[in-house]
Amino acid sequence: MQTHIATTPFGRRPMTLGQISSQVVARAAKPEAAVNKWHVFQHVREARDLLGATDRSLAILNALLSFHRETELTGDGELIVWPSNEQLMARANGMPPTTLRRHLAVLVECGLIIRRDSPNGKRFARKGRGGEIEQAYGFDLSPIVARAEEFKDMAEAVQAEKKAFRVARERLTLLRRDVVKMIDAGIEEKVPGNWSRVQQAYQAIVGRLPRSAPRQLLEDICIDLHAIYSEIREVLESFAKTQNPDANESHSGRHIQNSNPESILESEYGLGNKEEADASAEETDNLHSLPKRELPLGIVLDACPNMRESAQGGQIRHWRDFLAAAEVVRPMAGVSPSAWREACEVMGEQHAAITLAAIYQRTEQINSAGGYLRSLTERAREGKFSTWPMIMALLRAKLDAGKANGDGGEGTAAHGKLSHTAHDDGNGLRVSEALRRSLEKPKWR
Fold first, then answer.
1. Residue 267: what pLDDT?
2. Exposed, middle or buried by CB within 10 Å (0-12, 13-18, 19+), for 247?
3. Does pTM surpass 0.85?
């Protein structure tokens, strides 16, 4: 007698196109196909999110697989199991009946099992006289065999995605750490640059990071962070090279006999040549006779016009612009961060910047700007140094150069003041009559 294989569910359960598709896939299984049911179950468990399965539904699938006696499932074997709800609930750790029915429906929708319902909805098997099963009603496990390769590919894709997500998170963590610490290093070492802008850009990028971010967003943020990281690293490396220009030539440079391992700092800590030291002494004699007021910014810029070349936009309008330009000039002049910090602590930031500007203006006449700055810092600590004589000496030299060129230094300013302020871009030196008379004295005493 010919039997009919049930393809529709019992009772009020509807038939869907998804169920028909699952049945088509199950019928396409090759008879010679054979899989280990627990290996396939492992792949299904790893790919459960892609399949739409839940933890509870997988617990039921595990129970259904346990009702099949064979570990290996074949395409031509009997793959229908017919446990009762009570047996399934017992093997599913006491799952309630309503939960059991709901998650059985999930397994059907995911195409992991197929319902083979009897006319009255009961699950049973009819056996022949020899004990062989002639007809079984229950849950068909044939999708486990038919889709085994698909489940394996899905599991590998999930594992690859997890690895990519883990790598993206690690990269994000490392980039965030590197960028933050490199910004701190740039600020601490007084490296020239708009570090506040860099910090704002970093915060804007990190601010796009939600509490739980997908991999694609993590990778996009990593790309933006890496751009900032590369920019900061290039600035710091360039600055480090200016601090130690001979570091890469140690193997090819000429041999210097010196037993002091820190001789590279010797020129900076030295007092410079005798001519520089004498000039420093002359410029700072009789400090009690110097003006008590602060140096005007316009006079400083007249005496040190080279500072304008290092200012942003070539203009210095306020003392803060002058201090920013000093940060740029310091590495160019060859002054180390430690020498600069010491000068700022002893003289104050503004006077240290004026001193640096004067040294930078005379860079061709000074062998070691760092050593000269340290020498002046020591004199300032002893109360024997002021920035007025340095600036006046530069102005006197500029006035003498003007006379030598035949212009006589004409152009007296109105009201006894400089004719231009820090806003002026003029190159000519125009001083008051009183200041001119003071500059024409043989020495500032």
1. 36
2. exposed
3. no
